[in-house]
Amino acid sequence: MKITIQDVAKKAEVSVATVSRVLNGNYPVKAETKEKVQKVIKELNFIPNIQARELTRQKSTAIGVVLPSINNMFFPEVVTSIETALKAKGYSLILCCSNNDREEEVRCINDLLARNVAGVIVLDPNTSNINSDFYKSIAKTVPIVFINGHASVENISSVSNDESIGAEIALKYLINNNHKNILFIRGENSASYDIKEKKYISMLTNSNHYHPSNVINIGKGNGSETVDNTIVSVTNFLTKNRKITAIFACNDLMAVGAINACKRLGLNVPEDISVIGFDNTELSKIVEPKLTTIDQNMSLLGENAAELLLEKITYNNEFSKKIILNNKLVIRETVNQQGD
Amino acid sequence: MKITIQDVAKKAEVSVATVSRVLNGNYPVKAETKEKVQKVIKELNFIPNIQARELTRQKSTAIGVVLPSINNMFFPEVVTSIETALKAKGYSLILCCSNNDREEEVRCINDLLARNVAGVIVLDPNTSNINSDFYKSIAKTVPIVFINGHASVENISSVSNDESIGAEIALKYLINNNHKNILFIRGENSASYDIKEKKYISMLTNSNHYHPSNVINIGKGNGSETVDNTIVSVTNFLTKNRKITAIFACNDLMAVGAINACKRLGLNVPEDISVIGFDNTELSKIVEPKLTTIDQNMSLLGENAAELLLEKITYNNEFSKKIILNNKLVIRETVNQQGD
DNA sequence: CTGAAAGCGCTTACAG
DNA sequence: CTGAAAGCGCTTACAG
């Protein structure tokens, strides 16, 4: 039922080779012939089959993107910028969601490879997959770029943020504003939380204000769960400990949870207590007061990942590069500039 | 460099036909042969090329999804449920973003067709594309499902919400709680806002409380822009008009903007003023107080769209169906139950 | 149970 | 400037 190049050739009374040439414009075709063929293409509403083209040309214009979840304020922004950058170069995106599951991630990649993608971008790759040989063997045959994957794997390019510096900037900002007793809020095991906690411990130890009990872990959860879990944990914490003047949250959702907890306890942010988040998701600009946070450069992550992948594709997967972006502080309304 | 079925056949000392049979398990193969082939497949890490398979089989296991933007609290949730439903049936998703642009939408669809998708799901299809003959002609050759597209086009299935009923439920809830003077907030031209405004006008006219000046349009914008624009408009409005006891917002972002404006003016929500949103995005569960809103059934929209598409694919694009979901009220914390 | 061969829709040397 | 033919990686009647 679908129109093929054969149908066009027949109707235009030329060979399929000629139709192919006018389609691709890569060989001389007599003007008259060209017009005739183009007319038929229009008439028949012919769309060339890219699958067949790619099979012949032995190259692909599809890119795989695997991400832990779409349903999150962080990933959609990154995906948007990947899509924009790649579409401009004629690539399409095949999306696969791993649901934070290690094996599903492997399945996604295998499916993408089977679909003959020219390369794949993985957001937040699973640590155990990185450490196993999975990525090492895959990376030999197809260009791979990690976003926020601490890629010790050779032959994989990556873009990430220096979250350690980001945490340092955030904590310095609090400390410079005279905050000494700072609550640290994190979630369950994640390399990213570990990095921030490490920085927190070293800085607070330096200032003689490190107390292990000022680190709380709100457990796991997504979206509004994170907020709710944080509200519970922070409420518990603050009813017992009022020495805290500032809160460092490992992401914006936790920061919003902390702010909400304060409100319920009748504490004003930032007058009574300051809060700083991490990520600079859209949410940080939506809540009231607007959240002071650390910018995770989401669109830069996406753009750079797209570029690195294109580079790998162009140079036959031969060179790898790591790009580390510096996080920067976004001052809005939730940190009291005088401290206490 | 890539391993093909040829390589496997050679190493296993069988024909490619036999390899294909053990791959697909659709023909009898001697146990011994099967094992030998499977062993080689493992050794060589062979992944069959789906593009080639689909070219031969003349069918596709890729589905196109086109959406106006990924960067939005509504679409990612819908896409997630589409992905989940479709992955379970062995399909993959090719994503294309139209950036709210009519022509880009057409380009997306054409690209997807060229990539030989088995069908396409369009979120919020552009009205002018629906009215032109574009979709009509496309729908003849490939299964198409609209989400929230008021599809008058024959041969296209669709899932949508009855937003008119949704608006009615929301307004009735306000009115039953004794709210009479209700502010209506909408954005720039969209069929969806028009439907809600129409309902608003008819219901408020009925109760003799319709005043055209109580309808405000905050212009266009996405994400935090919407919130900011709403804050400005509502602040302006409320400084001049304090008779309002409730606000109906056409989406959750506008509702949050309205709440933020109230806070800045020293008005408590819901004690001084009630706010109801629309959509039930994750945001409505994140803000404080939690937003009372109308559920847009985002995951149901996705699931149903996936099902309708699968149905069309199975039955050769021969049957179409429209599903209209009923919105329901989600009572949380922003509407004062006594009114005023 | 297995292999040889045709064919899916395209592109591209090759020959003219 | 144009056509015939090989080939991309697979599947599936057909024959044995």
Automatic annotation (TrEMBL), chains A, B:
Every HTH cro/C1-type domain range: 2-47
Signal peptide segment: none
Transmembrane helix recorded as keyword: no
PROSITE patterns in the record: HTH_CROC1, HTH_LACI_1, HTH_LACI_2
Gene3D superfamilies: 3.40.50.2300, lambda repressor-like DNA-binding domains
HTH lacI-type domain segment(s): 3-57
Keywords from the UniProt entry: DNA-binding, Transcription, Transcription regulation
Domain of life: Bacteria
Molecular function as annotated in GO: DNA-binding transcription factor activity; transcription cis-regulatory region binding
Name of the featured protein: LacI family DNA-binding transcriptional regulator
Organism: Clostridium lentum
Upper taxonomic lineage: Bacteria, Bacillati, Bacillota, Clostridia, Eubacteriales
